[in-house]
Amino acid sequence: xxxxxxxxxxxxxxxxxxxxxxxxxxxxxxxxxxxxxxxxxxxxxxxxxxxxxxxxxxxxxxxxxxxxxxxxxxxxxxxxxxxxxxxxxxxxxxxxxxxxxxxxxxxxxxxxxxxxxxxxxxxxxxxxxxxxxxxxxxxxxxxxxxxxxxxxxxxxxxxxxxxxxxxxxxxxxxxxxxxxxxxxxxxxxxxxxxxxxxxxxxxxxxxxxxxxxxxxxxxxxxxxxxxxxxxxxxxxxxxxxxxxxxxxxxxxxxxxxxxxxxxxxxxxxxxxxxxxxxxxxxxxxxxxxxxxxxxxxxxxxxxxxxxxxxxxxxxxxxxxxxxxxxxxxxxxxxxxxxxxxxxxxxxxxxxxxxxxxxxxxxxxxxxxxxxxxxxxxxxxxxxxxxxxxxxxxxxxxxxxxxxxxxxxxxxxxxxxxxxxxxxxxxxxxxx
Length: 431
Description:
There is one protein chain. Among the domains are: 35-134, Tetratricopeptide repeat domain (Serine Threonine Protein Phosphatase 5, Tetratricopeptide repeat, Alpha Horseshoe); 153-256, Tetratricopeptide repeat domain (Serine Threonine Protein Phosphatase 5, Tetratricopeptide repeat, Alpha Horseshoe). The model is unreliable at 1-27 and 423-431 (pLDDT under 50). The protein is rod-shaped, with a radius of gyration of 39 Å. The chain is an all-alpha fold. The protein has helices at 28-36, 44-58, 62-70, 79-95, 99-111, 117-133, 137-149, 156-168, 172-185, 191-203, 207-220, 225-237, 241-253, 260-272, 276-289, 296-308, 312-325, 330-342, 345-358, 364-377, 381-391, 398-419. It has 22 helices and no strands.
């Protein structure tokens, strides 16, 4: 029998909706009639030919099986036996991949209305599967609904089949009801079922249920990178950053994080969880290996990670590289501020000069003030005076300009006194 793959669901994020159950009923009288049908009797000669056809089918000798069965497709064969013949022919055509012919004969078997409940259920189930494969989802739903109506104990595969048809009809909330039931009642759910459950729950925004399925998936197949990434994504959507980091870290340890996007996600998670050193080391290694591009944005992120790790020297290196790529002088300003924290006054002043030269700054007055402060600390008073004079041309900095110029004069006078270069006051001078 031909096997059908279940639907692969893409990871999309939407708001959650309530479930709505599908009506799987049909007339009770028909259901009771099917359940009460007795098994029929098959003539010995007919039984022998059907048995031989089954042996050919098991050996994939489809032509011989069909030849044997066709000898029984006549008016002499009793309805019960003919229903068995048609059902077997359905299996043969299905084995050959001739789905439309298979559906035709399963339907003919049903139409005789003589088979007891178990073979009737088999025909209904096969028809539903075949119509899924043929993308005739309305027909698939019709037959699986009938299957459910005469089944006292629904099975997990049947729930999956129903959910698949509903999902293809874009009835996702209803599909979720049944795919979650399938997973819940199955001790060892198939990997494809869990994929279906995880993907559909993520698509509808039910992240906790998705995590339940994904945790089972990573146990079944821990070497599949997609599962770890989906698990991390589901945790992130619940703002469970620590659990997301755990999932991505495991994926990285297993060698699954090879794309720039994944590496940047992990680096961001390290930073978010207060582990900037791991973020910096990962980014440094990935940039050197070429897995992460040396863009302004990535270099700035790396610089910030080193800053947060209290390694200002490494931060400055990457800030300078990022600043060279930037369209404006903002990163040179940040570089200058880091140098000032380290007491590297002339290097700070140089960085501020580069910032002003590159331009496109929203607050140039602040840069002149910072550079003036750097020059003051470096005892470059004339340069500092020029910057504080320029600062005074910005209305919002007039008072700061005056204060800094006064402070600068005080510093100059203090140094002169300390070095003995100031004019001595003649105490004998008469007033």
